[in-house]
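Structure in, sequence out. Go:
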């Protein structure tokens, strides 16, 4: 008799987005006239840029001609794309990554979920709290927790690294020993960005404990402050102990197109394995389970990294960051305490005195007809906060902001 993977049943019910949907639907039913405005989505809304469209079209045309047709490509991804990424890291971060240290994928979320599979099943994981859910959920499914503890809102056996006002939403290194440390900077949901000194503390910890840092840099291109690191490899020693994951999703509007990459340096070593072994295992994993990103999409990625492509992508990012400024200044003017939104497209808004994430969510919905995302849905330390997203058409953002200004009473 077949039985399911019982670790799935340990997942605390995927509660956040279904519950938001339920409350919004109920409110709409009770108030059919209300124009509900969303500041809750973590999804891009603006059209692909001309250079990217040209790159996609070029590849489609090549597939339609027998003399230029191509089938399966290189397992690690199109060499030209990996060379373009290498040049991009050199130009934008002054760091050298070999083309064969890049692994092209269908996105940062799949890589973030899959990467744990090359590490031992008894690995102790440490995660930021609050966090993007895939780091936690993939390790639950892999059997690295004995279960969810309702009282604390935490999974047993995981090390939670609280992100709060006191530490500026960048955690201290784990207390005790962690094998795999997930870091996301700029952070979803808090919008906080780790400084070089803060990342160095994690790199030093990882080298001392021989741990591996999984660094999700999906929002790196939203950083405008030149003193803030866009890559973990800007920190000395990180090549020995860190894997970096990134994506064209938020950078180039590829959330639906699908394209990402991971970097596994050859020097990365873990206990009982020679240098190069982790790199080789990730290659093995990807060859076994994944047959490469679409060649059409990879051509779009190459176009995004061209000189014109990059210029257009940064304009797009500038558009979203202007949305962030509009939301931020309105929220601050109302007297709300707002974090993030300077180097990330998320604002982390503190709920007014004494109310919970969900109470703040309800108040925003009922008074202003605006939908945010309750911070507690990203982990117990998110309680008392609401995430507002800067992704959206300008007119929708300004309408939501106006409604908040006119109708929200704190
Ligand atoms: C949106 C997002 C990603 C991107 O995932 P893709 O699968 O590349 O679309 C990765 N990490 C975080 C934290 C995100 O918010």
């Amino acid at each position: 008799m077949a039985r399911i993977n019982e670790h799935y049943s340990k997942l605390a019910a995927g509660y956040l987005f279904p519950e938001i949907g339920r409350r919004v639907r109920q409110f709409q039913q009770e108030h059919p006239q209300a124009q509900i405005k969303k500041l809750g989505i973590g999804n891009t809304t603006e059209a692909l840029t001309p250079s990217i469209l040209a790159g996609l079209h070029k590849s489609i045309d090549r597939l339609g001609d027998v003399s230029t047709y191509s089938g399966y490509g290189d397992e690690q991804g199109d060499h030209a794309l990996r060379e373009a990424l290498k040049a991009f890291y050199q130009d934008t971060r002054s760091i050298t990554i070999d083309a064969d240290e890049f692994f092209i994928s269908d996105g940062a979320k799949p890589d973030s979920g899959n990467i744990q599979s090359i590490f031992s099943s008894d690995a102790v994981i440490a995660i930021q709290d609050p966090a993007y859910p895939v780091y936690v959920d993939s390790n639950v499914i892999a059997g690295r927790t004995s279960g969810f503890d309702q009282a604390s809102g935490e999974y047993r056996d995981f090390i939670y690294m609280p992100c709060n006002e006191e530490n500026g939403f960048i955690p201290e290194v784990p207390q005790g020993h962690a094998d795999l440390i997930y870091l996301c900077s700029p952070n979803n949901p808090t919008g906080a960005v780790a400084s070089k000194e803060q990342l160095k503390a994690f790199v030093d910890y990882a080298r001392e404990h021989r741990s591996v840092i999984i660094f999700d840099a999906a929002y790196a291109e939203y950083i405008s402050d030149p003193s803030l690191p866009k890559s973990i490899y800007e920190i000395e020693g990180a090549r020995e102990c860190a894997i970096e994951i990134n994506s064209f999703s938020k950078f180039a509007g590829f959330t639906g197109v699908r394209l990402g990459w991971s970097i596994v340096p050859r020097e990365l070593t873990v206990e009982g394995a020679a240098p190069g072994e982790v790199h080789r295992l990730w290659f093995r994993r990807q060859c076994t389970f994944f047959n490469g990103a679409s060649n059409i999409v990879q051509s779009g990625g190459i176009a995004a990294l061209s000189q014109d492509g990059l210029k257009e992508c940064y304009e797009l990012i500038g558009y979203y960051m202007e949305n962030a400024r509009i939301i931020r200044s309105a929220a601050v003017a109302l007297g709300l305490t707002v974090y993030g939104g300077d180097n990330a497209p998320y604002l982390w808004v503190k709920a007014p005195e004494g109310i919970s994430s969900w109470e703040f969510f309800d108040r925003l919905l009922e008074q202003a007809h605006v939908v945010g995302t309750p911070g507690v849905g990203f982990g117990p330390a998110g309680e008392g906060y609401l995430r507002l997203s800067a992704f959206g058409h300008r007119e929708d953002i300004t309408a939501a902001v106006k409604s908040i200004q006119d109708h929200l009473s704190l």
